[in-house]
Amino acid sequence: MLRYLQLVFILQLGSIQAQHTEIPNGGFEDWVNTGTYFEPFYWNTFNILSEFGCSDFIRPDSQAFAGKVCARIATLSCFSPDLNLRDTLAGILFAGERDAAPGYPCNTRPANFSFHYRYYPSPGDTAVLALVFRKIRGNRQEDIGVAYLEVSDTVRNWTAANVPVWWKTNETPDTVQVVITSSKAVIANRKPAQPGSVLWVDEVNTDIPIWRQQQSVQANLPMKCSVYPNPSRDSIYLPVLDDQSALFLLFDAGGCMRGNFPAGTRSISLARFEKGVYYLHFFTDSGHHCERLLRID
């Protein structure tokens, strides 16, 4: 079994914690060590590609605004013979599952999205820091609130940002996503990402909590390492769930659903799918959870 499936531990990178944030681990003090790379607890990255020859897109950095460390997000040239990949990939840090959203459960309406940042862009590149609230309407989701900041200039010193949330409706959202990237290309699908851009971010926060339910929901759902093997060339094996109403939904990185599987499903074959990143969502009476999967040759 690949090292990614080895037992992980939470690395406490300092006994002095940064100020309290309403977004879990918004100060980036807590990281998971997989044995190959670090990943910030409660956040998602594509650092799993470091298993196949790419460098870490996201890593802890001691040049923090507060506390011991911050998150360093870089756009890198990536070459992986195992994945037949040669490309420039933007560093992206996201909470609430970037593509195959439902995102994290949310039932509040904050007024502001705040953070501290520094940015060293390659020529022509732009960083994006965004907070998106959605309302579920049948089988689709509608953006009803957003806080969004683009940064194109070099910002050498830590700079505070307090971005207002623009609400499209008066409704209470169902889900929320946070997306932070060193290159706008990763979400805009426009000009290619520029290698060498680096974004540092710390103390990501909102004025009120935006996913109060997260910790209690996660406690009732399977552990991250319970889906195995990951990465996989063929079948993945699922955890045994007591909830007979459980449902598994598989999405590709473009947000298209590739399959749905009822409670009692023990394995899913990925052999018929092309290599790449997929998202497996678990829905139970206790809540929602998502695992990021990598299909390899």
Give the helix level as a range of percent.
under 10%
In CATH, the architecture of the largest domain is Sandwich
Classification by helices and strands: mainly beta
Overall pLDDT: 76
Q: Give the SSE order as H and E letters.
A: EEEEEEEEEEEEEEEHEHEEEEEE
Give the strand content.
35-45%
Shape by Cα distribution: globular
CATH superfamily (homologous) name of the largest domain:
BT2081, beta-jelly-roll domain
How many domain regions? Answer: 3
Distance between the termini: 16 Å
Number of helical elements: 2
The major β-sheet equals: 6 strands, antiparallel
Number of strands: 22
CATH class of the largest domain: Mainly Beta
| Rg value | 19 Å
Characterization of the model:
This protein is mainly beta. The chain has 3 domains: 3-89, no CATH class; 94-206, Jelly Rolls (Sandwich); 220-295, Immunoglobulin-like. The protein is built from 2 helices and 22 strands. The protein has helices at 185-188, 214-219; strands spanning 9-12, 30-33, 38-40, 58-61, 70-74, 76-80, 85-89, 92-95, 104-105, 112-120, 127-137, 140-151, 155-164, 166-167, 175-181, 198-206, 235-237, 247-252, 257-262, 267-269, 276-284, 287-295. Strands 8, 9, 11, 12, 14 and 15 form a 6-stranded antiparallel β-sheet that branches. A 5-stranded antiparallel β-sheet has the order 4-5-16-10-13, with no helix packed on it. The protein has a 4-stranded antiparallel β-sheet with strand order 19-18-21-22, with no helix packed on it. The radius of gyration is 19 Å and the shape is globular.
